[in-house]
User: Which sequence fits this backbone?
């Protein structure tokens, strides 16, 4: 594969650095490997607290954003008082972000929805929002949440949110591929503003913003995520047997390997949704379009729009899961920038 030194995607991906000017505070629940937190960082939100039951996940966030305080325990044990104490925020909380476990709603899961213990974590999140009264919240989940049980669960959830919080609610479904990210990944987002926050100007973004927006293709080819990648963190190539290599080599681009159920990337198109599965198994990393092997953690992170300086900790399996379960940081950045503009308007009004 020939490298492209003028790759606009990689320039944009790595234009976001570790140092930013923070304007607002933030609390992160069900944080995973930090996709939402990194997007918040880019958008000027300083995350004071990250929370996840798996230590390797919060270790990753803390290694990349050292200022955060990490909490590891069952989220059902959290209370508003405990969160305030852990985050060390005395006054108003500007934003709470979360992407609770989605397997209860996913087409890849059993779709038990709110009857599943993981579905109840969604209810817990909004109870915490109600108790903490941040100026705004962001909730992310899989599109299956909108259709499971013929849409009844989603309607019930929206009604619960409005009754529990009293917030002004905005909802949408967005695809990462529409924002210059080389991956077809649809997710739903619910944003809420406290009743005293004037939010008539809020609108979900429809495309990427910034200095690169006019240089991005409509559908970013996945091959751009695979260039200039040697010696980067998490670029550890998995060793396959000769049998597996031959099988992978025989799979056409865009095809599926029957042994691993892995899809081979079509290099001129965005990848499919990066899904790394649950502790019980599930999806596997994509097959490289030019080499008979699975994508590395770093290559998968590139598809998700993590910059090259963001390092994933934990076992290899934990690293893949952190990447696969994350909100693409550049998509999170666009949404959180729109939220930040609303909060800035409150400060100058």
Assistant:
């Amino acid at each position: 594969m020939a490298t492209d030194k003028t790759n606009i995607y990689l320039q944009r991906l790595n234009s976001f650095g570790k140092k930013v000017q923070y304007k607002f505070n933030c609390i992160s629940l069900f944080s995973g490997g930090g996709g939402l937190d990194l997007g918040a960082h880019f958008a000027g939100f300083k995350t004071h607290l990250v929370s996840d039951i798996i230590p390797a996940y919060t270790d990753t966030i803390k290694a990349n954003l050292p200022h955060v305080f990490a909490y590891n325990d069952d989220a059902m044990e959290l209370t508003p008082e405990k969160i305030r104490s852990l985050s060390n925020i005395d006054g108003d909380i500007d934003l709470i972000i979360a992407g609770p476990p989605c397997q209860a709603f996913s087409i890849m899961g059993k779709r038990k929805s709110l009857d599943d213990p993981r579905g109840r974590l969604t209810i817990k999140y909004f109870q915490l929002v109600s108790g903490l009264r941040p100026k705004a919240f962001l909730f992310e989940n899989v599109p299956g949440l909108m259709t499971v049980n013929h849409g009844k669960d989603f309607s019930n959830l929206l009604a619960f949110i409005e009754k529990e919080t009293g917030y002004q609610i905005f909802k949408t479904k967005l695809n990462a591929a529409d924002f210059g990210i080389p991956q077809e990944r649809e997710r739903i987002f619910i944003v809420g503003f406290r009743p005293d926050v004037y939010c008539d100007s809020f609108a979900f973004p429809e495309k990427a913003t910034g200095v690169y927006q006019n240089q991005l293709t409509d559908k970013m080819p996945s091959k751009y995520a695979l260039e200039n990648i040697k010696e980067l963190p998490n670029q550890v190539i998995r060793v396959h047997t000769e049998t597996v290599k031959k099988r992978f080599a025989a799979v056409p681009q865009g095809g599926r390997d029957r042994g691993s159920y892995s899809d081979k990337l079509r290099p001129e198109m965005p990848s499919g949704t990066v899904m790394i599965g649950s502790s019980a198994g599930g999806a596997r990393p994509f097959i490289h379009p030019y080499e008979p092997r699975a994508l590395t953690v770093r290559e998968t992170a590139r598809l998700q729009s993590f910059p090259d300086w963001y390092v994933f900790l934990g076992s290899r399996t934990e690293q893949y899961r952190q990447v696969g379960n994350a909100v693409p940081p550049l998509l999170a950045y666009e949404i959180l920038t729109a939220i930040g503009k609303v909060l800035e308007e409150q400060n100058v009004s």
Notes: The longest strand covers residues 168-175. Residues 23-211+328-348 form a domain with the Rossmann fold fold (CATH 3.40.50.150). The beta strands are 24-29, 45-51, 69-71, 95-98, 136-141, 168-175, 186-193.
